[in-house]
Amino acid sequence: MAKNKVKRPKARKARGFPDRSGAELIAERLMLERIGKVYESYGFAQLATPAFEYTDALGKFLPDVDRPNAGVFSLQDDDDQWLSLRYDLTAPLARYVAENMDALPRPYRRYAVGTVWRNEKPGPGRFREFTQIDADACFAPAPHADAEIIMMFVDALSAAGVDDKDVEIRLSSRKVMTGLLEIIGLDPQDQGQAGTVLRAMDKYDRLGADGVALLLGEGRKDESGDYTEGAKLETAQIDTVLRFMEGGDMAEALSANAVGAEGTEELTQIISTLTELGYSDRVKLDPSVIRGLDYYTGPVFEAELTFDVENEKGQTVQFGSVGSGGRYDGLIARFKGQEVPSVGCSVGVSRLLTALKSKAALDEALGPVVVLALDTSEMPRYHRMAQALRKEGIAAEVYLGGAGMKAQMRYADKRGAPITVICGEDEIAKNEVTLKDLRAGKKASEAIESRDQWTEERPGQETVAEGRMIDWIKERLQ
């Protein structure tokens, strides 16, 4: 009689939801600590809000079907209300400020660290679940709060490990875009044609003038054969937009438009402040910066990494954006009916870690010192060694896997241990320990030509009195 086959689930993770462990999490924690210290040095205090918000509070993704799923992950509560995992950290901030408006200092300066979720197609370095660290100033009008946020944003990226030469902050203004739309005769509130124009402009750095011209006109077919409907602008309108995108002189036209003139003046003052304080070499005006979220109302900016990486097709491309920000004076008004001038920035930590890893620019994340367990009768001795190291602030563990010395050394290597402590029969008899600096050994191995030479020199290894163990390890770690 045949036995019933046990049906087992397949071990697999959902697309866009990465497993992370060990060195990557250590690197993320260090990055968040460094960025957080920059934010705190500017006087921003940390705030934590829940992962779930009522879907209507998120603003951009109001439910218009049975299940709202345009970009967010949602579920229905037992009281039939829709809840969604937060798409970013700004919409929850808007809800918090509106809920606590009378009790907050003005300006209100907060930063936040947290996981966010986006129901979008995943790609290289782009996940459905990722970490952000934001800073925002509410009740803070333009342009001086904007200049400060940009300076802090630059400092945060530097603290995270981004070299100044590898990043460029691209700056523009939604007010200038509004002025341009009005100049060519479009209603900026019309998300149809005006929205198509802005989306086309946003692709300028990728498609160039010819590709954008097609999207501003009848439409464009890409290499795969997919066709994108255009904005159906007249030739004169297209010429005006392209002149603006190519850096042509639009000052006179924008000066005659109230919103455009206001946006231009704000950008001028921001650049002036950045120049005075030594940041202007890392910031450039770029009209192709549109920003996708609808709530931006003034200056907007993006951090673009300028070094090359290889994409999933083996092509060499620039890595692209790892952070952004801008002004959103109308977001909190959704709750209170009054504008609250606000500006903020956000660093995409998961994406930035991917970028620095691809460039081999991540700090080395060290594992613990591993005390080998060569004699099970001496386990208390080994634990005392690890305990003594921990009291000195040095991560340490005793090997507990029950295997021999070779397997223990392989374990230490996989754990990223900088040093192993070896205390066998010979060392115990002399109250000594043998200490092996695994990093120094790896470096020295590149120059050693034979096994005999390696056995004779034993690079990075030294036997010392047990009382000197902590000092020796401290010196090597420093």
TrEMBL record:
One of its GO terms (molecular function) is histidine-tRNA ligase activity. It is found in: Cytoplasm. Transmembrane segments: none annotated. The keyword Nucleotide-binding applies. It catalyses: tRNA(His) + L-histidine + ATP = L-histidyl-tRNA(His) + AMP + diphosphate + H(+). Gene3D superfamilies: Anticodon-binding domain, Bira Bifunctional Protein, Domain 2. L-histidine binds at residues 88-90, 118, 132, 136, 291, 295-296. Its main location: cytoplasm. Residues 31-368 form the Aminoacyl-transfer RNA synthetases class-II family profile domain. One of its GO terms (biological process) is histidyl-tRNA aminoacylation. GO terms for cellular component: cytoplasm. Its EC number is 6.1.1.21. Keywords: Aminoacyl-tRNA synthetase, ATP-binding, Cytoplasm, Ligase, Nucleotide-binding, Protein biosynthesis. Belongs to the class-II aminoacyl-tRNA synthetase family. Homodimer. This is Histidine--tRNA ligase. The lineage of its organism: Bacteria, Pseudomonadati, Pseudomonadota, Alphaproteobacteria, Parvularculales.
